[in-house]
Amino acid sequence: MYQTKIAGLGKYVPENVVTNDDLSKMMETNDEWITERTGIKERRHIKKGDGNSTAVMGVKAAKIAIERAGISKDDIDLIVFATLSPDYYFPGCGVQVQEMLEIDTCPALDVRNQCSGFIYGMSVADQFIKTGMYKNVLLIGSENHSGGLDFTTRGRSVSVIFGDGAGAAVLTRSDHNGEGILSTHLHSEGKHALELSLKGPSTEHWVPEIIAENPQGDDIPYYPYMNGQFVFKNAIQRFSEVINEGLQANGLEVSDIDMLIPHQANLRISQFVQQKFKLKDDQVYNNIQRYGNTTAASIPIALTEAWEEGKIKEGDIVVLAAFGSGFTWGSAIIKW
Ligand code: UT7
After folding, report:
1. Is the same domain home to 203 and 318?
2. Exposure winner among 2, 27, 173, 280, fewest CB in 10 A?
3. For residue 51, is it left (φ>0), alpha (ψ between -120 and 50) or beta?
4. How many helices (H) and strands (E) does the chain have?
5. Residue 195, domain extent
6. What angle do CA 126, 131, 133 make, to 5 degrees?
7. Do 157 and 198 share a domain, yes or no?
8. 177 or 254: whose pLDDT is higher?
9. Where in the numbering of this chain does the Beta-ketoacyl-[acyl-carrier-protein] synthase III C-terminal domain appear (predicted)?
């Protein structure tokens, strides 16, 4: 059995900064509410005409990760792309990335696990590398949320939270035993699928049907719906469970954690988890204040920034954990 290590990381966020005050000009909201309930001060939104899309941002992050990994794009054996906001209903963004990177041909797999997408993708990549089937996997998490949100007061409880951006990692077969991804644990509970969802367009809600059912447009199933408090309660429980599960599987204690990178769902969720595990401020990385919740991109953006800032060193135990729509949740324990 081989082991998987992270050989390179990259991130990209659009230049266009949208502050809480900017949002308050579009809907009834304010900086105080958003800061108090979520910790978010600003986020990035794609601007029409700036050339960005979910796949394009993914490619920008990927190019940095590939360069830092010291490999060529032609060394990539598999692309795994995690997003809930693909450029097209089909095909997925993975094939767009393969084309944009000018890789002749390679398998490209799209992962549909929302906020847990990067950890799901990491687990898939890890299995392929461990068995020896592939050596280098390019894993991307990217989201263009701003294109699909309701920026009227009707959508404020969701739209103020989400931001655009992308993160990427090159996962590679490791030559040293004991380093790299020690474990991944994945879960889902589909009975709560609709508590955080976008119903249409889909085979149940095609566009003409949606328009016919909602002539006034006041209950529009092609804007995301979130039962915020229910999601919040489930998130704090599942984050804790899945971190403990990962630690136990590796015979590790909470005191072994050097850096926890939680999916950036809400600063209050991260703070709850931090307090529960009695971690110090410098043991938990948060950047939701600057980017909002970027769903599948949030962990790779945060991981890239933590690494760039020198907050992750060789030998560190790094814990990634996510929870989100599905419900889905997961953790990854990495020895850097
Ligand atoms: O990443 C995937 C996982 N996602 C999450 O983990 C998110 C989990 N949930 C949350 O983070 C929080 O539930 C939210 C941030 C979404 C909402 O915070 P909350 O403290 O649960 O607020 P609430 O939904 O209970 O709303 C409280 C009040 C309501 O007014 P009334 O009914 O009390 O008069 C809302 O209408 O705040 C109002 N409200 C707003 N006010 C100003 C909702 N959104 C806004 C807004 N600005 N943007």
Report:
1. yes
2. 280
3. left
4. 11, 13
5. 181-335
6. 90
7. no
8. 254
9. 247-336
Ligand 1 atom with least separation from CA of 156:
48
Percentage of the residues of the chain whose pLDDT score is greater than 90: 91
Strand partners, 242: none
- Which of 150, 178, 206 is the last residue before a domain boundary? 178
Q: For the packed helices 228-249 and 267-276, what is the interaxial angle rounded to 10 degrees? A: 40
Same-domain status, 203 and 317: yes
How much is the CA Rg of the chain, to the nearest whole Å?
19
Residues 208-220: tens digit of each pLDDT: 777 777 766 666 7
How many structural domains does the chain have? 2
Shared domain for 174 and 98, answered yes or no, is: yes
Question: Is 197 near ligand 1, meaning CB less than 6 Å away?
Answer: no
Q: In terms of domains, do 114 and 205 share one?
A: no
DSSP string computed for 120-162: HHHHHHHHHHHTTS-SEEEEEEEE--GGG---SGGGHHHHTTB
173-185 b/e with 16+ CB inside 10 Å = b? bbeeeebbbbbbb
Ligand 1 midpoint to CA 44 (Å): 20
C-alpha 150 – ligand 1 centre gap (Å): 15
Query: What gap in Å lies between CA 297 and CA 169, rounded to an integer?
Result: 11
Q: Are residues 137 and 254 in the same domain?
A: no
The residue type at 93: C
Tell me if residue 115 is catalytic: yes
Please work out whether the CB of residue 324 comes within 6 Å of at least one atom of ligand 1: yes
- The domain spanning residue 83 has which CATH number? 3.40.47.10
Boundary of a domain, candidates 178, 193, 224:
178
**What does the pLDDT look like over 255-268, one tens digit per residue?**
999 999 999 999 99
